[in-house]
Amino acid sequence: MSLPVFLEGRLSLPLIGSPLFIISQPALVIAQCRAGIVGSFPSLNARPSGMFERWLQQLGEALTDRDAPFAVNLIVHKTNSRLEEDLALCVKYRVPIVITSLGAREDVNRAVHSYGGIVLHDVINNGFARKAIQKGADGLIAVAAGAGGHAGTMSPFALVEEIRAWFDGPLALSGAIATGRSIAAARMMGADFAYMGSPFIATQEANAEPAYKQMIVDSGAADIVYSDYFTGVLGNYLRPSITAAGLDADNLPKASEMDFSSAAGGAKKAWRDVWGAGQGIGAIRDIQPAGDFIAQLKAEYRAAIAAFAA
């Protein structure tokens, strides 16, 4: 594995819990890190902006060197008016891992490197991957077809193969990963980590409405709709939630532009009741504590590795 030194011995499973809009908050991140995986959250989940610093203080008090480190996701896009403020707090509190999305910036990478943090940048194709590394990112998150939220369209086989042809640093793979077997498969394909989000929506610690959690349990891949209408970036969403919002899921208009001002506290309507999810949710059977779910993943992962070796 291409692990940074500070991760050695702190992970009990090669898994990063991906940052989930609205859903990922300290309770879930703490449960993930204590169970031995990297927990993460978008800085924009902490609103108003002063809440972000309080969350960083809370995580610093709750987690120790015996736990896995946590990560903060920064939306690196011109419509995110909070970027500079949130980056300064990441530096102040020495956030160990920063996940950057929707833009690679050298100044952001330098700021994180100034205190010894690392930057993982999410990409949907090989071209974006090269640009991210050229601008100073330490590692990559390959967001393949089937991932929840903002997702690409490339097969994970193709995307990982193209990246690994030239990059041997830390690489996580996202896209319909929902079981320990799929974590093992990601490793066998050449990724260092799996990157999993949608299954954690159906955990007790997730900051999601009960109806959202139950919809994850009740739905499968056929219930996922791919659209850019809600944020201006193509992503995967639950069809029943789109219908409940009064929209025709099969005839959504194209977005005019990318805009994250609502997520940063702007006036534009945020589609809070249109819920994201990836194609792997057919594997989710019930709502349970995050620690129990991660224990299940560990058992499945060990069994998959043992079966392959046999």
From TrEMBL:
Name assigned to this protein: 2-nitropropane dioxygenase
Family according to the record: Belongs to the nitronate monooxygenase family. NMO class I subfamily.
Oxidoreductase is among the record's keywords: yes
Pfam families from the UniProt entry: NMO (PF03060)
One GO MF term: nitronate monooxygenase activity
Gene3D superfamilies for this protein: Aldolase class I
Annotated InterPro entries: Aldolase_TIM, NMO
Keyword line: Dioxygenase, Flavoprotein, FMN, Monooxygenase, Oxidoreductase
Presence of keyword Flavoprotein: yes
Organism: Sphingobium indicum (strain DSM 16412 / CCM 7286 / MTCC 6364 / B90A)
